[in-house]
Task: structure prediction
Amino acid sequence: MEDTKTYQGMICNTFDSLENTSITKFREILPYPIFQIGPIHKHIPCQTSKATISPQDQSSIDWLNTQTLKSVLYISFRTGASLSLPTFTELAWGLANSLQPFLWVVRPGLVRDSSVDIT
Result:
């Protein structure tokens, strides 16, 4: 947060309907404007070769269709993100103990320096 004091504004890959509460809080705390320009992936063609993109897993669709509307937590980290194994484990237990239905995208390489196959 110390580095952000010199910012003149912040651009976020989000929109009000998705993160209204968080954006409102940031606007109360931060002394500069926040620009919501998301979702960026709808406006910029993917520059990644198709060979490096994992195939889409459609196996959760049937399960999602049985859940109550707006009841499922969706967790996904950006492609460059990585978690330590203890952080990953803590997050997994937190989700499990929440007793809320969730869909968690766990891609290869999410857990750094781990020989454990998470997928």
In short: The first helix runs from residue 16 to 29. Confidence is low (pLDDT under 50) at residues 47-52. DSSP finds three helices and four strands in the chain.
